[in-house]
Amino acid sequence: MGSDKVRQLAAVIFTDIVGYTALMQEDEKKASQQLDRHRNTLEKRAQEFEGKVLHYFGDGALTIFSSVCNAVQCSIGIQNDLKSPRLPLRIGIHVGDIAYNDNEVFGDAVNIASRLESLSSAGGIIISEKVKEEIKNHPEIKTKALGSYRLKNVRQPLSIYAVSNSGIEVPTLREVEKKTGRLSNKIAVLPFVNMSSEGEFDHFSDGLTEEIINGLTQMDTLDVISRTSAFAYKGRNEDIRQIGDQLSVSHVLEGSVRKYKDRVRVTAQLIETDEGFHLWSETYDGHLDNIFEIQDMISNEILEKFDPELVEEKQNTVKTSTLPVDQDAFKTYLEGTFHEQKFTLPGIEKAIELFKKAIDQDPHLEESYIELALCYCYLGIMGQSPAQRAFEKAEQYIEKLCEVNSENKQQYAVTAFIELFLNYNFTGANRSFAKSLENIENNSRTYYLYAIFLNVMGKPELAIKWMELALQCKPSSLMYNVGLGRTFYFARKYEQAIEQFDYTLELDASFLSAIDGKGWAYMAMGKEEEAHNTFDIYQNLVSQEQENIPQLVYVAAKKGMDEIATHFLDLLQLGGTGGRYTITSVDVAQIYVGLEKFDEAFFHLQRAVDDKIGKSLFINTDPIWDPLKSDPRFKELINSIGLTTSIRALEWPDYGIMKTSD
């Protein structure tokens, strides 16, 4: 072949012996035996699975396959062969174009396979998303999602997976994040303990914790664990090192709050999780009116431990309000966020009541306007309040926010949601999102909301990138993890959706949105029994609020149990949910799709669109509506909404440059 290059699309596996250099220094003979065993096993398995070993690099090797499935099966076989006696081998697999000759191998696939190999643990196999996609129809190959990462000399973030078949080692999330460098500046803020005699002051201590989390999230240097994940440790006395492993963080901030009359004492300590030693501990005394100053002091102390230069920069660039904070209003606001984070209908309704009260107490408390608008958007999207009225309410509170401070950047993402769900103004929503994202990095909430917008617009593949970007900012956020699962579902990547929902349920086994999403993914895969069992779990968790759920009625309809489905559909339409949940026209239309009564389905779907129920905007993306798409009425419906509008979608930011895509 000489120096002529051969070009081909190939699955590339990169193998490497862990600790080989150290072993050579200790026992050269044993190291040589391990090297020979590695190469002999590799040659034998590569021949069995029609692969070709192209190059050996010391204790490593590069092998190519024309079949991705063969590459993965070969790797599993190699690891099983090397288990007894154990030879610590790492394997990475990617697929892409390569070029090679007698001396060299070229191509991004080679570099990526090498990077993936370095992230594996001894006895493990790490694969890329491309490989995962190729083996999705091979149920005998099990995988586990490990998240999305930026790898050296790889321009875009890469979603990676571990092969999890029996006998194959799977690295922990903490191990992977430590190798990629993400772990070094990753922090969890545990709920501050209320040391006051007033039990109701829990809302204040929880709110202080949330505000510190929010403040640290704005700092590019830090990767902050989400509020939901951190608050799972409230009231639990666990070793900091165990918490570090469970949350995959390098540092933990914990503390306490004590109130006496109108004064407050906050104690905070920053702990390194590997060894459990304290980096610093500080006590802050002040008046409740100055609570924002205390939050800033704590945030700056933490940031100084990671990047002292940024503290001065932050102090010079961040403009803080000089208006005094009304302590009663702030306390009410914190209580509102406490209820909002429950993500239940009663919780949202209580949060709305409290945010309104906070505004009455202090009309300059900008955060209350934002949260109120978002709460009304939530009710409108789910159809649990007259949708048009809910979105109009959200719009009113954004207008009031602008009267208080027209420069508040958080307004634009909420405005985009209102343009989307109230006005069906898709180009306007896109412009508002673009404005929200201008010169703002790590804006995880906007990344998440924009991904939802892209799902509405029928661009789930691009939405996946935005959801992954949100998760890079907050990897343990339950809502973002569920959002990625939903987006996989919209993209018809059902197995990945199931894996993502399962991963979310590992973080919180009772998180309703993940259970609901998993049930719908099973239905899309035709696994009706699994869907039924999943929705049964959902039903049991909401039984006090909702006796009958439309998901189970839909399953009955799909199973051909028409009489039962019709009976419960009638019951639901008569208000027989047995709780505060309101049956929506979208729910009814879905059940009629399951019953294959398409005339009735179109009637109720049109009604949902007319009533501005937010869930109806997903009709062009959600697989549940696929049976309607061959009907001319479906095209008429999406045309009437404007879902065929062409937008110039924003791509995910790359080194601060915002791109666009048709």
TrEMBL record:
Top-rank taxon: Bacteria
Q: Which InterPro entries match?
A: A/G_cyclase, Adenylyl/Guanylyl_Cyclase_3/4, Nucleotide_cyclase, TPR-like_helical_dom_sf
GO terms (BP aspect): cAMP biosynthetic process; intracellular signal transduction
What Gene3D superfamilies has UniProt attached to this entry? Nucleotide cyclase, Tetratricopeptide repeat domain, TolB, N-terminal domain
Q: Which Pfam families match?
A: Guanylate_cyc (PF00211)
**PROSITE patterns (UniProt xref):** GUANYLATE_CYCLASE_2
Q: Which GO terms describe its molecular function?
A: adenylate cyclase activity
In this protein, which residues make up the domain named Guanylate cyclase? 11-117
Identify this protein by name: Guanylate cyclase domain-containing protein
Naturally occurring in which organism (per UniProt): Fodinibius halophilus
